[in-house]
Each structure stands twice: as structure tokens, then as C-alpha cells.
């Protein structure tokens, strides 16, 4: 597909149009959220989340994004990407790189040239490393060193962002989600510092409703990159980093239970705090299939999709059952973890309440209901028929031929008439003959009539006016032709207008029709015109006869007088016509007209053809993608037709055609000048008007058409959805629901636990079905609550703002030792002896009394 560059983003927005599955924005999102991506992996994950949210959220939602990193090239790239609608803009990026850090380790950390307190927490034997603009290079201590060095600037930017989020709240509630990889240098190196600085700022401001959540991605998330996984030394270092990070995070997640505190010192600031690092923290790990580790992009997208739910007003629980309805975000932040010790003590209620701060692991699945894809297919069905109408022949279905001839009639008659006929051109400046006195016989005989001399003077004046007259004729001709072009532009669209013009170079198939063909006929008539001296010969003959004879009879004199007068006028008219035609030829009126028409047609073709082709291709591509999705998801549907059999009428097709024409013509100057055309908004209006006849319960009506045993009409649907109870509708909805539930695949874990551990963990399942499809959702709920699924009623919730069935299993109180990748991280960590980069605090390498990972 070739897309006009300025239109790429606007055409891409066509995918966001909602008619049948339109979602009200009201109360769609859970407000007052700041999501921070640390380092490369954290930044990419949050960027994926922003991409999912950005076209839906409004400033009132107060959902914000931030990236903190040390890699200048990556930050510049994401800022540049933001111009195309992806990435982070300059106000959403904080760099911890400062040029003065580059040589800080040149003479050892204790002799750094910046400040004596910059990194007094680092090992004095830390090797000399040149720090550059390309990040922390996987060294956690370098990441923290860069953060400490830039702390004065960073804290101001970070706190300004926090304050801005808080100032926009009405409830005084702010939730912060920190997303970071744990295997690298920047994210894992500054994770605790960023979290504790946020907590300290909230405490200083006396914010009572500040919650901080973590989302940590383990080293194996990166193993989908072949270059990473095949580098055994790099894999070992990443795993060791991950283990060290989790040991520190574990320690600080339970800091309030210890006689200890967290201390941060920069060049000019010192912070001491004794609170837990996170209110809740989830783990995300890499996953394998038969082909190896799944690419990072899939994992970051899946992680972002769960974070999207935390940003949404997604509820769990059911008001009808013990009023147990909560926001999923509140459930995420609930402190309900427990430890392995608790499990061995048979997890009594008291122990569960006391224990806290272990991780949460999520398994999630979306069972996409393809309403949008179905809508794309229906839109394309109607659009394709309407678009064909833009290429209808105005000669077959309109009066184009007649309209063109009417415009050219005056010139056609002028060029076809006899030379002595009155000139019937409606232009100023022609010789007026009505008030000329007819000469007497005597005057004719004596050659004193002066008639021809008088005409000669009039002809002189006429010749002076000829250029103006021809220009007037041209203006009139072009204006009349343009009126016809405009008429068919409005009725048939630009392609019909091009057809009316009939320029071969603009892609017209039949150039024997149209304005240019008719103008060429006139041009040929003009070229074929030959002046005649017939009336001059008649005058000379009359004068010769009069000179030789004397008519005594009055009737003969009258005939002579009339014949002479008529011949003189016709002679003048013939001369006047000849001069007009000569001037038409000299000024090349028809040639100019042909060139003007050619340019007009080519310009219309240039302006509209590519735009129309791109619009058609964009809508067609969406339909093709929709067809694939529907083919995979709705395999059990009787047919993949979603509108009643009598819905697509000639009237509705014509309405869409009219809408497309209006879109094009209203935006001629925008298309011509390369400005963005609001395609999404305009097409949404067209679609909305077109599908208004479907009425309420649109998504379910489309399912009904697809799953019904026989094809349905509009009347059939109106009867089925005209009352709260309809057995036929219920039966079809049960079949549609069964098609979805039976095809439910296993849930996708965001973090893979070792075999045999899930049953040892406290888990809650949350199932969401869409409230915009109440009859369908009711059927889904009934199936899920029955054998073999046996789901509890209070785990199934109707949710606004969704067209999907989603399931979230949240396992709480998960220790690191239960993770499938725990052993590899522990082994890599134990094997490291001389690598200066694992821990933030080298003095407390093993985080004081915190033991190695435990196993059950």
C-alpha cells in the first residue's frame, strides 16, 4: 500500500472507529496513575502500555508515563518516535546521564573528581571504568552511581511529575507503578532509589493515599534474543544481577519488620527511611515454547496488557453476591501475601494476616470478542459497493452528454450557421443592425447610400473590441464547463467529474465522450471554416443592374432596395463572423480550453486518486485482518455474515457514496496541500449514520445473524430483541457463548512457576465479561458456572469498557524460590566472586541476615 505520508497516522486511526462495539469513555479508566519505566526493558514495557492507552485516555483520566534511563541514544529514539504517535515525548523522559560522570572512576571511586560523598557506598577496589552515553552496560552499581551524580536534577523532575499527578487528583489518591528489568544496570541499579524517593516525597507532603507497586521482569525475559542467549557469559551475568536485585528487593519489601532502614546519599542529599519498598510487587518471567524462549516483545506486550487492566476501571467480584465488588487495581495492592513458613504452619488466618510483602504472580488471558473485526468487515462490504459507485459513468447514469451539449450549443450553432445569418452569441460588442436605415433606390443608383461605408466604420470599432469579446467568450465557456464539472463532482465524485471531462491522460477509458471530445469537434469546425464572397457578389450585381437600368415600377424599386439592404447586412454579418472566427483561432480559444480541461482532469486525478486508493486499501486491509481473526475465533458460526439479509439496500449504499464524496470534496485543499485530512472523524460519522438502523444490542444482533440456523432479516432481529425474554434469542446466544467458552485455551502465565507449586499458593480468579453484550455475557456466565468449569459466581463480573472475556489468576505470597528460573539465578549468583557490580551496597553483599533462596 502506498500511503500519503501526512495521512499515515490518520489512516491508521480507522482501526479505532467503533460503532457496534462503541465504548463510552465515561468512567472507563481508573484515574490518578503514574507508570514509570526504568532502564531499557522497563521503558519498552511502559512504552507498549502507553501505545495501548494513548488513543483512549483523556487528560481528565490523569494517567501519566515516565521513562528514566541512562542510554542517550535510546532516549533520543523514543522522543523521536513520539512524533509518530509512539514512544515518550521529551516531558516523559528523565536522563540520569551527565557528561561529568564519564571519567569519575578514572582514578578509583575514592578519588573521584566530583564529590567525596558521591559513592562512598561503593567498594574502594571498584575497577576503573569509562562511563559513556550508552548506559550503565549492565552494571547495577554504575546505574546507581549515575543516578546519584544526577540526583539534584532528577529528583526535581521526578518530584515535579509526582506533584503534577497529585495536583490533578480530586481524591488525593496517587498510585505509582514502577516497571523494571532486574538483570541490567540502570533499572535494577536505581529501582530502590526511585521507589524510596517517591515514598519519601509522599511522606514529606503527608500524602496518606500514595501506593507504590512494582513490576519486575526477570533475566530470562531477554533470552528470546538469540545474541543474548547464545552468550553464556552474558547469561550468567544477567542471572547473577537478577538474583542480587531480588535479594535486595526482598530485604526492603519487609524493611518495616526489621530494626534497619534504607539510606541514600548523593553529593548533597541524604535520605533515611524505614518503610517497605513496595505495597505490592509482581514478577514477570520469560517463557519457553517448543521453539525456545518467546521474544521479548510478546512478554512486554502481555505485561502491558495486564497493566492496562490496572489502569482501567476493571472490577472483580459481583455486587449480587455478598457485595464483593472491587477494582482490580485495589486487589493488586491488597496486602494479603503469605510465606512458606506460613504454609508449613497450615496457613492459619492469623498468619496470613501477619505475613506480607511476598510477590504476586499473574496468569491472564483475553478471549477477544471480534466485534471490531466484524464491524470492519461490514464496513468494507458497504464501502466497496459505495466506492464502485464513484466510478459510475455519468453518461450512462446521468445526463452528462446532454449537459455538455447544452453548454456548447451556442458555439456549435455559431460555427454551423450560414455566414450571413445573425450571430446569436450572447456577448457584448457585436455590431448592432436593428436601427440601420434602409437606403432608397435613388441613393443606391447614385451610390450615395453610404451603407457599406457605415458598416466599415462599425467593423473598425468591432475589431478593436474583438480581444475583449473573445476573452468574454472564453470566461463564459470555462465557467459553464466548470459548473457542469462541479455538478458531477457533487453527484458522482471526482472520478465521475474526470470522466465528464474526458482527458485520456487522467485514466479515462473512453475518450470519445466528454467535454474534450466535444471541444475538439468545435475546434475542427472552426478550422474547416472558409470565408465566402457570396454577398459581395450579390451587392456588386445589384449595383451593376441599377446603374444600367431605371425601374419605373414601384415594386421593382422596393425589391431592389430590399435586396441591396439585405445583401449589405449579410455581407457585414459574414465579415463579422469571419473576424470572430479568425480571432477565436488567433487566441486559440479551443486549444486553451482543451489544455485547461486537461489540467483540470489531471489535477483532480492527482489530488484524489491516490487519496481514494489509500482510503480503500486501508479499509480493505482492516477487513482482511478482521476476516482472518473472525475465521479463527468464530469457527462454529453458521456463516460469516453479520448484517441482516435486507440491510444493505441501494439507499444505504448511496448514502455512504455521498458521504465519501463529501469527505473528498470538503478536504480538497487539505489533500492538495498535504495537510492531514480528518479521515477517522469523517468516516466514523458516515459509519454511524449508516449503521444506525441496527439499533440497540448491535454486537449481539451481529452474533445472532452469524449463529442463527437460517438467514435473518431486520424484522426477525427486531422481534427477537423487542422483549426481555425471547427463547430463540436465548438459544442462539447460548450457542455463541459455547463457541467462545469451548475454545478457551490455557491461561498465559506472566511468570512461570516451578511444577507443583501452584496448589501451594493462595490464588484468586477474576473473570470479566462485557456489559455491552448482556445476553451473550449471561450465557457465558451460565456456562462457566456449570460443570466442568464450576467457577464461582462472585468471580464473574460484568465490566464496562470492554469487548472481551478476560480471566486473571493472581497468586499471592509467592517467594522467589517457587519461580522456574530461580535455580539458574541462584547458581549464577553463587558462581560470581570478583564481579564488582552485583550489589548496590558492597559492605552488605548478602543483605545482612537475609538467606539465600529457600526451597520447599
UniProtKB/TrEMBL annotation:
Cited InterPro entries: Tubulin-like, Tubulin/FtsZ_GTPase_sf
Protein's UniProt name: Tubulin like
Amino acid at each position: 500500500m502506498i500511503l500519503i505520508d501526512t495521512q499515515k497516522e490518520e489512516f491508521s486511526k480507522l482501526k479505532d472507529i467503533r460503532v457496534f462495539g462503541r465504548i463510552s469513555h465515561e468512567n472507563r479508566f481508573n484515574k490518578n496513575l503514574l507508570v514509570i519505566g526504568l532502564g531499557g526493558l522497563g521503558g519498552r514495557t511502559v512504552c507498549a502500555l502507553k501505545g495501548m492507552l494513548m488513543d483512549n485516555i483523556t487528560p481528565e483520566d490523569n494517567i501519566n508515563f515516565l521513562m528514566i534511563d541512562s542510554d542517550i541514544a535510546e532516549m533520543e529514539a523514543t522522543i523521536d518516535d513520539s512524533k509518530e504517535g509512539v514512544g515518550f515525548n521529551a516531558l516523559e523522559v528523565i536522563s540520569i546521564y551527565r557528561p561529568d560522570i564519564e571519567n569519575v572512576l578514572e582514578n578509583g571511586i575514592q578519588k573521584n573528581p566530583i564529590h567525596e560523598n558521591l559513592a562512598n557506598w561503593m567498594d574502594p577496589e571498584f575497577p576503573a571504568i569509562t562511563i559513556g552515553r550508552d548506559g550503565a552496560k549492565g552494571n547495577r552499581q554504575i546505574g546507581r552511581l549515575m543516578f546519584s551524580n544526577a540526583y539534584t536534577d532528577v529528583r526535581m523532575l521526578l518530584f515535579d511529575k509526582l506533584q503534577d499527578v497529585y495536583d490533578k487528583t480530586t481524591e488525593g489518591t496517587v498510585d505509582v507503578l514502577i516497571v523494571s528489568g532486574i538483570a541490567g544496570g540502570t533499572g535494577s541499579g536505581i529501582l530502590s532509589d526511585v521507589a524510596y524517593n517517591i515514598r519519601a516525597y509522599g511522606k514529606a507532603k503527608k500524602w496518606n493515599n500514595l501506593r507504590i507497586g512494582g513490576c519486575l521482569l526477570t533475566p530470562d525475559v531477554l533470552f528470546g534474543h538469540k545474541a543474548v542467549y547464545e552468550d553464556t557469559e552474558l547469561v550468567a551475568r544477567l542471572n547473577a544481577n537478577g538474583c542480587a536485585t531480588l535479594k535486595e528487593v526482598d530485604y526492603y519489601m519487609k524493611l518495616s519488620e526489621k530494626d534497619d532502614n534504607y539510606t541514600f546519599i548523593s553529593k548533597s542529599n541524604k535520605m533515611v527511611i524505614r518503610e517497605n519498598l513496595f505495597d505490592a510487587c509482581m514478577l514477570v518471567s520469560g517463557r519457553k515454547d517448543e521453539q525456545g524462549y518467546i521474544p521479548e516483545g510478546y512478554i512486554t506486550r502481555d505485561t502491558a496488557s495486564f497493566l492496562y487492566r490496572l489502569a482501567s476501571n476493571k472490577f472483580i467480584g459481583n455486587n449480587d453476591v455478598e457485595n464483593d465488588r472491587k477494582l482490580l487495581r485495589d486487589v493488586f495492592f491488597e496486602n494479603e501475601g503469605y510465606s512458606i513458613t506460613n504454609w508449613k504452619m497450615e496457613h492459619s488466618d492469623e498468619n496470613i494476616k501477619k505475613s506480607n510483602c511476598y510477590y504476586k504472580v499473574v496468569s491472564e488471558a483475553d478471549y477477544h470478542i471480534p466485534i471490531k473485526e466484524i464491524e470492519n468487515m461490514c464496513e468494507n462490504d458497504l464501502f466497496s459497493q459505495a466506492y464502485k459507485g464513484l466510478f459510475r459513468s455519468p453518461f450512462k447514469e446521468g445526463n452528462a452528454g446532454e449537459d455538455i451539449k447544452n453548454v456548447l450549443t451556442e458555439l456549435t450553432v455559431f460555427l454551423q450557421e450560414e455566414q450571413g445569418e445573425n450571430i446569436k452569441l450572447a456577448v457584448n460588442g457585436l455590431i448592432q443592425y436593428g436601427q440601420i436605415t434602409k437606403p432608397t433606390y435613388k441613393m443606391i443608383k447614385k451610390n450615395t447610400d453610404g451603407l457599406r461605408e457605415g458598416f466599415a466604420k462599425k467593423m473598425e470599432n468591432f475589431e478593436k473590441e474583438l480581444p475583449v469579446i473573445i476573452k468574454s467568450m472564453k470566461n463564459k465557456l470555462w465557467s459553464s464547463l466548470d459548473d457542469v464539472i462541479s455538478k458531477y463532482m457533487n453527484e458522482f465524485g471526482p472520478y465521475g467529474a474526470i470522466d465528464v471531462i474526458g482527458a485520456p491522460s487522467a485514466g479515462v477509458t473512453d475518450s470519445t465522450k466528454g467535454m474534450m471530445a466535444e471541444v475538439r469537434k468545435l475546434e475542427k469546425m472552426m478550422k474547416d471554416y472558409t470565408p465566402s464572397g457570396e454577398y459581395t457578389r450579390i451587392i456588386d450585381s445589384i449595383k451593376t443592374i441599377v446603374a444600367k437600368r431605371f425601374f419605373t415600377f414601384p415594386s421593382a424599386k422596393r425589391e431592389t432596395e430590399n435586396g441591396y439592404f439585405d445583401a449589405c447586412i449579410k455581407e457585414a454579418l459574414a465579415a463579422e463572423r469571419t473576424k470572430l472566427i479568425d480571432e477565436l483561432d488567433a487566441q486559440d480559444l479551443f486549444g486553451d480550453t482543451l489544455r485547461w480541461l486537461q489540467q483540470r482532469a489531471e489535477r483532480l486525478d492527482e489530488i484524489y486518486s491516490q487519496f481514494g486508493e489509500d482510503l480503500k486499501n486501508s479499509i480493505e486491509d482492516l477487513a482482511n485482518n478482521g476476516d482472518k481473526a473472525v475465521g479463527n475465533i468464530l469457527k462454529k458460526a453458521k456463516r460469516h455474515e453479520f448484517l441482516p439479509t435486507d440491510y444493505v439496500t441501494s439507499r444505504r449504499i448511496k448514502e455512504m457514496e455521498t458521504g465519501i464524496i463529501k469527505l473528498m470534496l470538503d478536504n480538497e485543499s487539505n489533500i492538495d496541500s498535504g495537510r492531514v485530512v480528518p479521515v477517522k472523524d469523517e468516516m466514523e460519522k458516515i459509519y454511524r449514520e449508516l449503521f444506525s438502523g441496527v439499533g440497540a444490542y448491535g454486537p449481539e444482533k451481529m452474533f445472532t445473524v452469524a449463529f442463527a440456523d437460517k438467514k435473518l432479516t431486520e424484522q426477525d432481529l427486531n422481534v427477537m430483541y423487542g422483549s426481555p425474554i425471547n427463547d430463540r434469542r436465548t438459544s442462539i446466544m447460548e450457542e455463541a457463548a459455547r463457541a467462545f467458552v469451548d475454545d478457551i485455551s490455557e491461561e498465559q502465565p506472566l511468570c512461570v512457576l516451578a511444577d507443583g507449586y501452584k496448589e501451594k499458593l493462595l490464588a484468586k480468579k477474576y473473570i470479566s465479561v462485557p456489559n455491552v453484550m448482556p445476553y451473550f455475557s449471561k450465557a457465558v456466565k451460565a456456562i462457566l458456572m456449570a460443570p466442568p468449569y464450576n467457577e464461582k459466581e462472585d468471580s464473574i463480573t460484568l465490566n464496562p469498557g470492554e469487548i472481551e472475556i478476560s480471566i486473571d489468576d493472581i497468586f499471592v505470597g509467592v517467594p522467589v524460590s517457587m519461580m522456574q528460573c530461580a535455580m539458574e539465578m541462584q547458581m549464577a549468583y553463587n558462581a560470581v566472586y570478583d564481579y564488582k557490580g552485583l550489589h548496590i551496597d558492597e559492605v552488605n553483599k548478602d543483605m545482612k541476615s537475609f538467606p539465600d533462596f529457600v526451597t520447599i
